[in-house]
Amino acid sequence: MSDGMTLFSLAFLEHVVDSLGWMLPVYLYLMSFLYTLFHELGHALMAVLLGTPVTRFQLGTPVLFRLQLAGLQLQFGPFLGGSVSYAYADDARRWKVALATLSGPLFPVLLSLPVFATAGLQPLTVMLGLILLGQTLANLNPFLRQADGHKVVMQLFLMMKGEKILIHDLFERATAMYSMVKYT
To answer: Looking at residue 155, what DSSP letter applies?
Structure first.
């Protein structure tokens, strides 16, 4: 760290950006791409550990390249984004769904701990930490409809209501719920 700068100052952030120079956009893209890779791997690995087969693993959007490997479809694209699809059984426990969903944002954090413990406050590790913090907090946001945090909260809510297993007719249930709402 430079003389007299504290970690949480604008001067330190300016120092980090200046030291990365013209490579800053490249580093931002690569680090965000790695975060997305590890995020989706976290979902997939936890699902497999809990006995749920993964049917599709997508890294990047839009999908430009597909590869089929023994029941797993791998999809790749140039821009940031990704997703994982699972083959949950009709009697899958909701806690498994919640745990696989939560594992996505937490897996990159777990993998980054040794990096931060050994590398110190280098410009690249600071940039990685900011990306990791921002994307993890965004993914865990319970108020953002497609975020993992929202999905976990919904699974916990349904478990508290007594629905301990998945029901695959969610579209029909949602349609029935909306038809019961009276608009005035």
So the answer is: H
Q: How many CA atoms lie within 13 A of 2 on its CB side?
A: 13
User: What six digits make up the tokens of 177?
Assistant: 């719920």
Contact at 8 Å (CB) between 85 and 55?
yes
The beta strands (E) that lie in 24-166 are given as: 54-61, 65-69, 72-76, 79-86
Would you state the pLDDT for residue 124? 77
Which pLDDT band, with edges at 50, 70 and 90, does 3 fall under?
low
Estimate the share of the chain in helix, then strand, then coil, as percent rounded to the nearest 5. Answer: 60, 15, 25
CB 148 within 8 A of CB 156: no
What is the layout of strands, in order, in the sheet containing 54-61? 65-69, 72-76, 54-61, 79-86
Tell me the pLDDT tens digit for each residue of 96-150: 999 999 999 999 999 988 888 887 777 778 778 888 999 999 999 999 988 999 9
Q: Token pair of 69, please?
A: 């490997």
- The alpha carbon dihedral of 35, 38, 44, 49 has a sign of negative
**Using CA atoms, how far apart are residues 127 and 14, in angstroms rounded to an integer?**
11
102 phi, psi to nearest 5 deg: -70, -30
Say how far apart CA 108 and CA 87 lie, in whole Å.
24
Which amino acid is residue 70, in one-letter code? Answer: A
Contacts of residue 93, defined as CB under 8 A and 6 or more positions apart, other chains included, come to 164, 165, 166
